[in-house]
Amino acid sequence: MADKKMILSGDGAIAYGAKACGVTLGAGYPGTPSTEILETLTSIGGAAQWSPNEKVALEVATGVSLGNGRALVTMKHVGLNVAADPLFTLTYMGVNGGLVIVSADDPGMVSSQNEQDNRNYAKFAQMPMLEPSSSQEAYDLTIRAFELSEKFKVPVLLRMTTRVCHSMGPVELWKAPEAFRPAPYRADATTKVMIPAYARRAHVRLIQVMKDLAAYNESSDLHAVLNAGSSELGVLSSGVSVQHVLEAAPDASVLQLKMTWPLPMDAIRKFAGGVKRFVVVEEGSRFLEENLRAAGIPVEGKEDVFECGELSVGRVKQLLAHDTTPPPAGAPGRPPALCPGCPHRKTFELLSDLKLTVLGDIGCYTLGVLPPFNAMDASECMGASIGMGLGLRRSLGNTPEARRVVSVIGDSTFLHSGLTGVVDMVYNKPATGHVVLLLDNGTTAMTGLQEHAATGYHLDKTPAVPIKLEDVCRSLGVDHVDVVDPVGDNDGYRALLQERLASNDATVIIVRRPCLMQMKKMAKMANHTEVKK
Ligand SMILES: Cc1ncc(C[n+]2csc(CCOP(=O)(O)OP(=O)(O)O)c2C)c(N)n1
Hints:
Number of helices: 20
Bound molecules: thiamine diphosphate
Strand content: 15-25%
CATH class of the largest domain: Alpha Beta
Shape: globular
CATH topology of the largest domain: Rossmann fold
């Protein structure tokens, strides 16, 4: 019986599911399309925090689970690359309290620098994976993920994609069956300290656990024939693609997988044997197709063009017909741009005017690559601007070109993964030194104005001790740490940048001016507090 019915996004449904499980802590780092999960969790009274990056979030979650608490970890797909180091050993260690990792993938790159398919992480790191196709399933499978995690003592990957994260749908909020009661902490170094002697045993255990999970999946309700249509065409699918298939091929038999690793190979083989034509419809890489082939199940796959971008009803029709005609070009959209009045504009006007070589990073300021600025030479992943700048200076040697190289990074990105770049700048200083522009707008603007460790607030807006960026840089031994206001003292900014570029020193210029959108949000918050008083 449903406790309550609500219209929720997939992200919202995960938060409600975690709350229903009595989650001890949700930890994560913002990233589209995952950000709303923890924002919702905190808004409904769950404990949640922004960690400085995804690796730390997963490590904190590991500690929660060690202490028999339940932990939810959220991130966008590329965040799992950052968290991969603890992840690949966490699966060996196993969990005490349930630990669920949400990877929100972005096929089609609505807001990402690549469209990597994180289903491959489940196989690579050896952990079960669940894939909801709707908000209701996001809620149900979050609860199921905690259950599975505790039953099999492994972390569970809850793999989402943009459409499921952001689409709204009705959700029956049933109560998780067992109220969660944390048990007292008991240390067990033999399963939790991964020295080689213990890790070898743990690996053997993990292989058995994955076999047990495959057997569980075979006989569970986590796969179902949704539309026992004709035996002419049978389609295997998961996630949002299931919805597209039901609409694109209403006469087909459709086998939906909710647990997509380890796979229920016997059930799939049986389904495939009962239809004349057996096709896999999957967004992204050929994860299902290749694993089915490896298990000796003959299957029809897709043309290369369908490895890129999102699927849709129209594209699924094309995929099934092996039709690779590109869709007609839509009306040209308005290109994204820095907001009017954005303080980053002053920096990119300057960089463009001085014709500098700019190694950029990930944030609103990546838009400095576009007209009218055209002021960015490379941008790779969060934190990479500093290392790339140092490497380019090395490559260019003691030349005038080397002196033109600047790294540009935002405040949230700096705390996420820029700090170690500064350590390298001090430790392995290039012959011409280096200049880092740290654009401090007091927020994580790109993903919707989230707090971070230097803003002075937690995720739930309670006050926090702010990390002082200038103190951090000075403590690392940077030769010059300057703070400038790009709007109030634009001439001083230009003169300072030119002076530092001419030196052989290691420099961080903190370019400090609040994001206008953040100022609006803070004003609203202040008014709200006034009214409440
Ligand atoms: C590993 C990883 N995690 C999260 C993201 C999502 N993301 C893109 S930019 C960004 C931070 C932007 O904040 P900041 O550096 O302060 O720049 P701003 O947008 O405020 O100018 C985040 C969290 C990402 N691209 N990669």
